[in-house]
């Protein structure tokens, strides 16, 4: 079984990860035993999301290196929040180790600021809420900034906080959670609301389940 780890931290933005957790659960209903969600934290103390939802990490960040070494860690997903301008040193160190092991890391909104501040976006194509949003980090990767909802470059996915749907679809593709046809149809449906994309999603889901 592969693991998608979700970093839990104070004020984590609920809408930026909720699509992914739901899609993961849905994929497991169609094809059980492939993936599971793991809540990881900087310690095991409970946190509260931006919507004041209480969450308790199941594992410490230290556990991720062992999972990566065993080949079972599919990705680390880091949602945005209000406290990424400083701190999170252990998270930064863990991200560096995971990148060295070619484990995908996906950051959205405020989490991209943390990666920029740590110098992890200096040589990668990336995006965020805006180019000016990252400038305050003092990073030197501005020439690699891309005006796009989501960008993946060499194992690092970044996205704007207002583009949680494209971010989720990209994580689904990067991890292989579902076939690309399903991720594409789901993204198109949630961005447009067009019935034809619902039909395409149902067809892709059925084909995958029965394969």
Protein described:
There is one protein chain. With 211 residues, the chain is of the alpha/beta class. The protein folds into 2 domains: 2-178, Class I glutamine amidotransferase (GATase) domain (Rossmann fold), CATH 3.40.50; 179-210, no CATH class. The protein has 8 helices and 9 strands. The strands form 2 sheets. Strands 5-2-1-6-7-9-8 form a 7-stranded mixed beta sheet, sandwiched between helices. Strands 3-4 form a two-stranded antiparallel sheet. Strand 6 (73-78), helix 3 (89-100) and strand 7 (105-108) form a beta-alpha-beta unit. The two termini are 19 Å apart. The model has no long low-confidence stretch (mean pLDDT 97). Residues 4-172 form the DJ-1/PfpI domain. It comes from Actinomyces oris.
List the main descriptive attributes of the protein structure presented here.
alpha/beta, 2 domains, Thiamine biosynthesis protein ThiJ, Class_I_gatase-like, INH-QAR, DJ-1/PfpI
Helices, strands, pairings?
Elements: E1 2-7, H1 15-30, E2 35-41, E3 47-48, E4 54-55, E5 59-60, H2 62-70, E6 73-78, H3 89-100, E7 105-108, H4 110-117, H5 131-135, E8 150-153, E9 156-159, H6 164-175, H7 180-192, H8 195-210
Parallel strand pairs: 1-2, 1-6, 2-5, 6-7, 7-9
Antiparallel strand pairs: 3-4, 8-9
Helix pairs in contact: 1-6, 6-7, 7-8
């Amino acid at each position: 079984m592969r693991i998608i780890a979700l970093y839990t931290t104070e004020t984590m933005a609920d809408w930026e990860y909720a699509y992914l957790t739901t899609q993961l659960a849905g994929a497991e209903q169609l094809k059980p035993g492939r993936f599971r969600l793991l809540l990881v934290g900087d310690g095991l103390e409970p946190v509260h999301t931006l919507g004041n939802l209480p969450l308790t990490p199941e594992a410490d960040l230290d556990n991720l290196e062992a999972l990566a070494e065993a080949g079972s860690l599919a990705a680390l997903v880091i949602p945005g929040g209000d406290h990424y301008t400083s701190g999170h040193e252990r998270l930064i160190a863990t991200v560096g180790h995971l990148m060295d092991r070619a484990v995908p890391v996906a950051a959205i909104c405020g989490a991209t600021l943390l990666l920029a501040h740590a110098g992890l976006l200096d040589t990668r194509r990336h995006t965020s809420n805006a180019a000016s949003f990252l400038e305050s980090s003092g990073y030197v990767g501005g020439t690699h900034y891309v005006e796009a909802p989501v960008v993946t470059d060499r194992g690092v996915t970044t996205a704007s906080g207002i583009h949680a749907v494209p971010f989720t679809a990209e994580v689904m593709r990067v991890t292989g959670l579902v076939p690309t046809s399903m991720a594409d149809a789901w993204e198109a449906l949630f961005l447009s609301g067009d019935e034809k994309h619902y039909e395409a999603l149902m067809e892709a889901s059925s084909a995958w389940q029965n394969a």
